[in-house]
Amino acid sequence: MTMLRFIAGRRPAFGHAFQGLKHVLLTQLNARLHLVATILVIISALLFRLDTLEWAILIIAIGLVWITEIINTALEALVDLVTPQYHPLAKVAKDTGAAAVLMASCVAMLLGFIVFLPHFLRWLSKIIPNP
């Protein structure tokens, strides 16, 4: 089996995955905020000309946030399917899923701060003269 035939055979699976991503972006406000943050981080990384390790750290941080957001959206949909009415355990499932996204976002922000701070300070020192 050639590589092209293998990839072509997986096209429906990719289509489903992109439909899931589209659903997340269209229905989740936080996902759209993550998209804006992702774009701003990438633009900043390009402007500061980050090295390979810094890019890797940012890509992992961005991926962590997106993965948790997507899983949280799936978890919320599953909970709503199983129990459309209020249930305390459904609340726990939804709240802990949201907490996972919050934690991933906090980790990503800390990593971004660690990566960008030296570059920002270096840039700042160029535009503000030393007394």
Helix-strand blueprint:
Elements: H1 3-9, H2 11-27, H3 29-48, H4 52-82, H5 88-127
Helix pairs in contact: 2-3, 3-4, 4-5
Can you describe what's shown?
This protein is mainly alpha-helical and 131 residues long. It has a single domain, classed as Orthogonal Bundle (Helix Hairpins). It is built from 5 helices and no strands.
In short:
The chain is mainly alpha-helical. The protein has helices spanning about 5-10, 10-25, 30-50, 50-80, 90-125. The chain starts with a helix and ends with a helix.
β-strand amount: under 5%
| DSSP helix fraction | over 70%
- SSE order in H/E notation? HHHHH
CATH class assignment: Mainly Alpha
Rough outline: flat
Radius of gyration: 20 Å
Number of strands: 0
Task: Report the total helices.
Answer: 5
Whole-number count of domains: 1
Q: List low-confidence stretches.
A: none
Overview features:
131 residues, mainly alpha, Helix Hairpins, 5 helices, 88% helix, 0% strand
